Amino acid sequence: MIVKIAPRRGWFWALPVALLVVPFVLSACSLSPSGADLVAQECTPCHTLAPIEVAAKPEHEWRNTVYRMMAHGADLSRSEAERVIEYLAVTLGGKRSPRHAIHGYRLIFVSAVMVGAMMKLEFVWNFSDLANGLMAIPNLIALLLLSKVIKQETDRYFGSIK
């Protein structure tokens, strides 16, 4: 007896979701050492962590410091150096990592793809129109708040071409 299994409704989104989720999961579960591990491993043979922990430098200064230490013998590849620089800039420089924003955006995007694949097409188009309309609101507010600056710049531009 041959049993035919009918495809289940809504499973057509599984492949695109898997293609989006797998790179996200692999990057989050990377087997390479973190910036903190690299700092502890490569910096402590020459000095303690105390001078690193007290310094509050922006990213460009940490970049100079890390590459200077590489010239003095720190054994870091270019990608490891970038992880160390990002770690130091985020934890000791007051800069927030854009990587967190990227992961958050990916999560929202994958969720939207999953929900959108299961919704009726009319709802998806209505939601899309609503989202596009709502994006105009902050732009209109900004135009109102910047109207004086816009007028000054417009007058300056047309005054310069006469």
Let me know the number of strands.
0
Could you say which overall geometry the principal axes of the C-alpha atoms support? flat
Biggest sheet, open or closed, and with what strands and sense? none
- Helical element count? 8
Q: Would you list the SSEs in sequence order as H and E?
A: HHHHHHHH
Mean pLDDT: 79
Terminal CA distance reads: 88 Å
Percentage of residues in DSSP E strands = under 5%
**Strand pairing plus helix content: what structural class?**
mainly alpha
Low-confidence stretches: none
**Rg to the nearest angstrom?**
26 Å
**Percent helix range:** over 70%
The total number of structural domains is 2
Which features does this protein show?
mainly alpha; 8 helices; 162 residues
Task: Map the helices and strands.
Elements: H1 14-28, H2 35-43, H3 50-54, H4 59-71, H5 78-93, H6 98-118, H7 121-145, H8 147-160
What does this structure look like?
- Helix content is 73%, strand content 0%.
- The radius of gyration is 26 Å and the shape is flat.
- The mean pLDDT is 79.
- It is built from eight helices and no strands.
- With 162 residues, it is mainly α.
- The protein folds into two domains: 1-118, no CATH class; 120-162.
Briefly, what is this?
The chain has 162 residues and is mostly helical. The chain is 73% helix and 0% strand. The radius of gyration is 26 Å and the shape is flat.
